[in-house]
Amino acid sequence: MTDFQFSEEQRDCLQELVNVAMGLASDKLARYLNTLVHLQVPAIKLVKTEQLPEHFADRHQQQSVTMISLGFFGDQGLRGETIMLYQLENVGVIAKLLGYSDDDSSEAEMLTDISSVLTTTFLNGLAEQLDNSFSYAAPRILSSRDKHFAEKLASTAEQWQLALQVDIRYQLTDYSFNCDMILLIPGEAVLRLRLILDQILASF
Amino acid sequence: MALNALICDDSLLARNQLKKSLPAEFDANIVTASNGVEALATLRSQEIGLVFLDLTMPELDGIGVLEAIKADAMDCLVIVVSADIQPEMQKRVMELGALAFIQKPASAAKLADVMHKYGLI
Predict the structure, then answer these.
(1) Is the keyword Signal assigned to this protein (chain A) (predicted)?
(2) Contacts of residue A12 in chain B, CB cutoff 8 Å?
């Protein structure tokens, strides 16, 4: 069986690349929402995709969440999918701030817009550091206040061998806005990613 | 006598990147810290002339370090090297007394520019 684990050096390297990419995304979000975003150290861990639905069911059982996915495709086999999970407690506040009307379709539109800003900026920043370039599929909403959230997440996750879970907290100055970002990566892309990380590490 | 310089970043990669990108003519003894608490302990126990400071760190972040340096009137220069590039954050670190802000990953050319500008090389 193929070993997809990362060494401590590879994990540190990936965390720093993610940190830089997150900084770019946060700057974009701050300009988009006209506020200051407090960045936190990204927590990265590799999880088996079959564990994801249970993990997120536990984590979000008290809140409504919306899940937006974006597929990405890079050179040399680097590809995957990002999933943004939004807690909806403060969505109304953000919607008003951005001038969206107060209904579900606008909420979906707004979260899709924010996801596009965050994920494409994040992934472009990551790709640049990996000396790669990504193209993107159109974002899609997988679930919104859906009773079958866990099942939908499971059916998305099962297409991939490994999930690189990046816990990101975007805490805004004037109100709380939390979202989680998950990168789902197929096994061969993980192997490719590890090779690239080793090349980066070897250069320092 | 060579200057003592502190590189404070929670990432080993970032510390190594920065160390390697410093100008060859920068004559300094380099020490490192992996969070703000370690950085303050070093600053309080050694004579450090220059700090390269990350902002997003566990235990104590870079803002906390800058606030402590200012509160204790420590005699050291600080160059912030961070991925948190929001204009508001850059303004805040300068108000807290940082000499300069450099976006991560810090290029050798940018580091040399800033260090030359402030007479550090």
Answers:
(1) no
(2) 11-13
pTM above 0.95, yes or no: no
Structural domains of chain B sorted by starting position, each given as residue range(s) with its CATH number in brackets: 3-117 (3.40.50.2300)
| First and final C-alpha spacing in chain A | 31
For A22-57, the pLDDT digits (tens) are 999 999 988 888 888 888 888 887 777 777 777 776
The DSSP bridge pattern shows strands A135-136 and A171-172 to be: unpaired
Dihedral sign of CA atoms A123, A126, A128, A130 in order: negative
Low-confidence stretches of chain A (pLDDT < 70) are: 1-2, 57, 59-63, 88-90, 102, 104, 143-147, 169, 174-178
| Dist. CA A23–CA A66, nearest whole Å | 23
**What domains can you pick out in chain A, each with its CATH number?**
35-202 (3.40.1550.10)
CB count in 10 Å sphere of residue B25: 10
What gap in Å lies between CA A107 and CA A179, rounded to an integer? Answer: 15
**Amino acid letter, residue A32:** Y
Tell me the count of A-B CB pairs closer than 8 A: 53
From A33's Cα to the closest Cα of chain B, the distance in A is: 12
Dihedral sign of CA atoms B23, B27, B31, B35 in order: negative
Mutate one of B10, B11, B19, B86 to test the A interface: name it (highest A CB count within 10 A): B86
Stretch (H or E) spanning A125:
helix A104-129
Q: What is the DSSP letter of A44?
A: E
ipTM: 0.92
H/E stretch holding A66 reads strand A65-73
Q: What is the distance of C-alpha B43 from the center of its chain?
A: 12
For tokens 């990669």, what's the residue?
B13
